[in-house]
Specification:
Layout (H helix, E strand, L loop, with lengths): L12 H6 L20 H16 L7 E3 L7 E3 L2 E3 L1 H11 L3 E2 L24 E2 H4 L3 H7 L5 E3 L22 H13 L2 H5 L6 H6 L2 H13 L16
Parallel strand pairs: 3-6
Antiparallel strand pairs: 1-2, 4-5
Amino acid sequence: QCSPWKDNACCTANTSSEAHKDHSYLYNFNWNHCGVMPPKCKRHFIQDTCLYECSPNLGPWIEQADSSWRRERILHVPLCKEDCEEWWEDCKDALTCKENWHKGWNWATGLNRCPWGYMCRPFSKVFPRPKDLCEKVWSNSFKYSPERRGSGRCIQMWFDPAQGNPNVAVAKYYAWRKRGSPAQVENVAPESDQAVRAVPWAVLVLLPLALVLLPRELGAGGSRGRGSL
């Protein structure tokens, strides 16, 4: 599930391999905390992990985090409408006991377990809408976007690498938007040559380098410890 980033990734092959395991050293996180998670649902969480660990295009959404277990995080990444809806559709019948998977687990055994008194329920009850799943499961790391794949305005959680990485243009668009005025940005089509020219040369050169050099909080085995609380 991490293959789209194989030509330009912020993760190692070992990280990619670990992302597919039920009990990985990445976060020591147990996907099966309410029984076995269906494969069609787990696929989306693996893709989510690959995006989080491997994508070089999340720079515009990296924020400083004042936390004992990480120094930075991603916040409000606009996830494409279809990605959220397919994620929710494939997981709606799976079971979980918590809305926010970032914190509040019982770690007494070394793996995350449901806190005392929390009942396992279908995703569709815990997350009534696709927006709820995308935005709440990782405490607003993602934002449900009304934009669709190919719009140049939202991040795809997975894509066909043979067709190129659509998230490159999206990252450039939002990087420029943070540096310039919204009015300037709205007049630029992100997929056009004009969009590339509109981004200052220094940004184009330094953005990939910055993404590699930005300090990434290391958890067990080199991960940022996404679910470590």
